């Protein structure tokens, strides 16, 4: 809605017809009469001409509204919301509330009070970070948000943007897939316990990195998000919170929680292990039924991964090894704390030639019997190197 070529004029010659046409373009109807001549208003889209002021007004009160002869907006009500609203004001309000391109937030300009700052529309500023709710996601844990979350996810990735996942539980029924070679994007939530993507389908990944087996993905960030399944995934070995199909390099994962599923992180058999990734403050909850990380079958050893602090609730893990068949060299680990293991779990196993330095490894309330107790908590790499600074 917009007024085009509108001229405020006190001359009656220039004229009712001009007002009528201009108002019609704005979706308004100029009623017969005027404040001076008397008029009747029956809807919000009716407008009355105030000849003396060269302005038109619509009525924001109860209908019908009678306008006596020889009146003014002030003598027949108040000017403002709930009373007479100038047409220019009404049109502006409608334009600001419009979702049409070029209207709404596009009409609001902001200039930060900083030296060198420039003016930008609010629409432009809003586009810096794309909220999942901009695409219709609800996040109440009941609504099927698959279409909205998928559209948001795909747009963020395809356009190299930063996506924002507000607090809520976003229920989906199909895997979110990152196309191979789509790099340089990030998604951030409001906290791993409050911004949760929950998979309602069974035995499928929540997020798959790569839609082909070849190629790579790089310069990606996931922060402050929880990943969960609606149902218990015991025995569902494909229920992996994050599944790496393609080569993954320069990935930053911070403050994530794997709440439920089988594996928290799993590599495709035959894929290269991650390269140059930084994973920190990751947490595995008691809903994980397989293990924390599985590199089984990964091929080329890749270097320079940095893991910070990991916390693992292993009491319901049944795979046999919590961190399984890890692979790579020049890899460093800050601290891993494992607690609650009661299923004769091996803590770690490594593929041949791997090199890992672990600053601290702490185990709490882990019950060990049978074959694990008789053999080893950690299966060290053949022809590789494993260094643990502190073990308790």
Question: How does the SSE layout of this entry go?
Answer:
Blueprint (H helix, E strand, L loop, with lengths): L15 H10 L3 E2 L8 E3 L4 E5 L4 E5 L5 E3 L16 E3 H11 L11 E2 L9 E2 H5 L2 E3 L8 E5 L1 H13 L3 E4 L2 E5 L3 E3 L6 E5 L5 E5 L7 E3 L6 E14 L10 E5 L2 E21 L10 E3 L1 E13 L11 E8 L7 E6 L4 E9 L6 E5 L4 E10 L5 H5 L3 E2 L5 E7 L1
Parallel strand pairs: 1-3, 9-11, 10-12, 11-14, 12-15, 13-16, 14-17, 15-17, 16-18, 17-19, 18-19, 19-20, 19-21, 20-22, 21-22, 21-23, 22-24, 23-25, 24-26, 25-27, 26-28
Antiparallel strand pairs: 2-5, 3-4, 4-6, 7-8
Q: What average pLDDT do the residues reach?
A: 88
Low-confidence stretches: 4-10
Query: What is the total tally of β strands?
Result: 28
Number of helices: 5
**What count of structural domains?**
2
**What quaternary form is this?**
single chain
Query: Which class of the largest domain in CATH terms?
Result: Mainly Beta
How much strand? 35-45%
Distance between the termini: 70 Å
């Amino acid at each position: 809605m917009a007024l085009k070529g509108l001229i405020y004029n006190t001359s009656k010659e220039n004229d009712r017809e001009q007002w009528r046409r201009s108002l019609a373009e704005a979706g308004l109807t100029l009623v017969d009469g005027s404040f001076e001549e008397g008029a009747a208003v029956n809807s919000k889209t009716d407008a009355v001409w105030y000849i003396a002021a060269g302005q038109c007004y619509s009525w924001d009160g109860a209908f019908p509204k009678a306008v006596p002869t020889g009146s003014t907006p002030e003598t027949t009500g108040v000017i403002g919301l709930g009373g007479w609203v100038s047409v220019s004001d009404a049109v502006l309000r409608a334009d600001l509330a419009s979702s049409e391109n070029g209207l709404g937030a596009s009409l609001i300009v902001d200039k930060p009070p900083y030296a060198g700052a420039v003016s930008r529309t609010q629409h432009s500023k809003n586009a810096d970070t794309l909220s999942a709710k901009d695409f219709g996601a609800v996040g109440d844990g009941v609504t099927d948000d698959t279409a909205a979350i998928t559209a948001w996810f795909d747009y963020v990735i395809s356009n190299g943007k930063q996506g924002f996942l507000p607090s809520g539980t976003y229920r989906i029924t199909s895997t979110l897939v990152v196309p191979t070679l789509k790099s340089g994007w990030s998604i951030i939530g409001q906290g791993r316990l409050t911004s949760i993507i929950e998979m309602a389908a069974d035995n499928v990944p929540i997020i798959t990195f790569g839609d082909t087996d070849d190629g790579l993905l790089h310069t990606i960030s996931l922060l402050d998000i929880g990943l969960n399944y609606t149902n218990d995934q015991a025995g569902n070995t494909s229920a992996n919170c994050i599944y790496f199909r393609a080569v993954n390099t320069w990935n930053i994962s911070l403050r994530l929680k794997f709440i439920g599923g089988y594996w928290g992180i799993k590599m495709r058999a035959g894929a290269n292990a991650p390269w140059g990734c930084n994973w920190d403050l990751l947490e595995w909850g008691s809903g994980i039924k397989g293990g924390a990380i599985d590199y089984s079958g990964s091929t080329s050893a890749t270097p320079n991964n940095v893991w910070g602090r990991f916390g693992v609730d292993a009491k319901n893990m049944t795979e046999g090894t919590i961190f399984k068949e890890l692979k790579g060299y020049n890899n460093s680990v800050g601290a891993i704390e494992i607690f609650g293991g009661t299923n004769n779990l091996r803590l770690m196993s490594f593929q041949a030639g791997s090199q890992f330095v672990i600053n601290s490894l702490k185990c709490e309330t882990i019950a060990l019997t049978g074959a694990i107790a008789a053999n080893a908590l950690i299966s060290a790499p053949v022809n590789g190197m494993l260094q643990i600074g502190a073990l308790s």
